[in-house]
Amino acid sequence: MAPLDYFLNEREYLIACVERFPRHRLSDAACRGLHPDHYHPEVGPPRRVDLDRCRSCPIQLECVALALRSEQPDTRTGWYGGLNPEEREILASHLDLPLSVDELEPEHDRTHRAVELRERGWKINDIATELGCCRRTVQRHLRGAA
């Protein structure tokens, strides 16, 4: 089965995860505890061992949903659920998602939540996991609130 076929066969569940991301599932991620740079290399794809871990992860669908939920189409980066940015773009076009990222959760709410968690002493990676976004987005929220 081609990589995208797996995700397209789970279309309804994937869309449900994009609309209401199941944050509690992130604790099951095979990459939990690894540095995000493993899946966001400066040049080229991640190492084979990292992609194999990603592709065999028990929350592969949820991971792709996280990416589709939190990234803007013109700034897709990194690997999520074993898919690169171009593959996620193709998947997103096939899903015809009913909601835009902005409609899912108001930006000011996410900024407020990021600031609140940071003030409680949370680390950037943990805030990103809680908000269902990447570290760069958390840093953007924190800078915007300063």
Query: What is the makeup of the main sheet?
Result: none
Percentage of residues in DSSP E strands? under 5%
Number of domains: 2
The 3D shape can be described as globular
Helix proportion range: 55-70%
Q: How many E strands?
A: 0
Mean pLDDT: 85
Structure characterization notes:
The chain contains nine helices and no strands. By secondary structure, the chain is mostly helical. It has two domains: 3-101, no CATH class; 105-145. α7 runs antiparallel to α8. The mean pLDDT is 85.
Give the arrangement of secondary structure elements.
Elements: H1 3-9, H2 11-19, H3 48-55, H4 60-70, H5 85-95, H6 101-104, H7 107-119, H8 124-131, H9 135-145
Question: What characteristics describe this protein?
Answer:
mainly alpha; 56% helix; single chain; 146 residues; 9 helices
In short:
The protein is about 55% helix and about 0% strand.
